[in-house]
Design goal:
Structural class: alpha/beta
Strand order of the largest sheet: 3-2-1-4-5-6-7
Number of strands: 7
Order of helices and strands: EHEHEHEHEHEHHHE
Largest sheet: 7 strands, parallel
Distance between the termini: 42 Å
Bound molecules: NADP nicotinamide-adenine-dinucleotide phosphate
CATH superfamily: NAD(P)-binding Rossmann-like Domain
Strand content: 5-15%
CATH class: Alpha Beta
């Protein structure tokens, strides 16, 4: 027997400070709750919807959390959010880049303003926050984890979502680029590519009987994913159990991409 922690203990996040962007709803909210259940103190973040409800839900559950607000479509939003979290907690050990938007138009008519907004929220702010957190971890010689929420459209092109596909393809590449530079500093950078997950983002698809049937027929697991499917993976990738995983894009899609 060694003195190594038991395998389940290596999934725990006690004494870690985690920042989860876009944790006012959907996948981010589930991730924030799950990280707190695993022992982390969580900085919950929202924009149009305040993250106070997420933080209160965690506190009621016996966890530790507080709420932050920032508009990541503003190029200064990432730095404002980072500064506020540092002022509250001093540092960040785990960064979950989850906030994201999808704006649909035919490519020929795609307004450049919408292109820029999607790129700013989904890709630029991911780079900005990762750089701020990574720089601070390296300056303090501290290990850390970054988990980016990618998409099936990191691999596929989609239809009427060129900015979303370009941004999520960029998230996958950025994940690998940062992983390569920071692996030797004990900072692991990974991504999760969710399949079709039942959140506000996908309500319209689920309410469209034909599209819903087509999607379900295409998913080998035969069901929509739940936010908790992503949250469990985020806990794993944030934990010491994943210390030797970096630069990976983990598909959590019920088999969609394997098909
Ligand atoms: P959601 O419920 O709409 O959550 C999106 C989150 O992003 C919200 O908390 C939202 O905050 C935040 N956000 C949006 N615009 C923002 C802005 N300008 N500044 C700061 N935060 C902003 O959607 P979700 O399905 O959980 O999506 C979460 C992530 O998963 C996204 O990156 C999405 O691309 C990805 N994803 C989702 C699916 C799926 O099937 N649902 C599949 C693949 C990937 P406010 O509401 O407070 O503004």
């Amino acid at each position: 027997m060694t003195n190594a922690p038991s395998i389940l203990e290596s999934f725990r996040l006690d004494r870690k400070i985690a920042l989860v962007t876009g944790s006012s709803s959907g996948i981010g909210l589930s991730i924030a709750i799950a990280l707190a259940q695993a022992g982390a103190t969580v900085a919950c973040h929202g924009n149009s919807r305040p993250a106070e409800a997420a933080a209160e839900a965690i506190q009621k559950d016996g966890g530790s959390a507080s709420a932050f607000s920032a508009d990541l479509s503003d190029p200064t939003g990432a730095a404002q959010l980072f500064d506020a979290v540092i002022a509250a907690y001093g540092h960040v050990d785990i960064l979950i880049n989850n906030a994201g938007i999808i704006l649909r138009h035919d490519a020929v008519d795609y307004p450049f303003e919408d292109w820029q907004k999607v790129m700013q929220v989904n890709l630029n702010s991911v780079f900005q926050l990762s750089q701020l957190v990574g720089r601070d971890l390296i300056a303090r010689s501290s290990p850390g984890k970054i988990v980016n929420i990618a998409s099936l459209l990191s691999f596929q092109g989609g239809i009427r979502v060129p900015a979303y596909a370009a941004s999520k393809g960029g998230v996958a590449q950025l994940t690998k680029a940062l992983a390569n530079e920071w692996a030797s500093k004990s900072i692991q950078v990974n991504a999760i590519a969710p399949g079709y997950i039942a959140t506000d983002n996908t309500t319209a698809l689920r309410n469209d009987e034909t599209r819903n049937r087509q999607i379900l027929e295409r998913i080998p697991a035969g069901r929509w994913g739940q936010p908790n499917d992503i949250a469990a993976t985020a806990v794993f990738l944030s934990s010491p159990a994943a210390d030797y995983i970096t630069g990976a894009i983990l598909n959590v899609d019920g088999g969609w991409l394997a098909r």
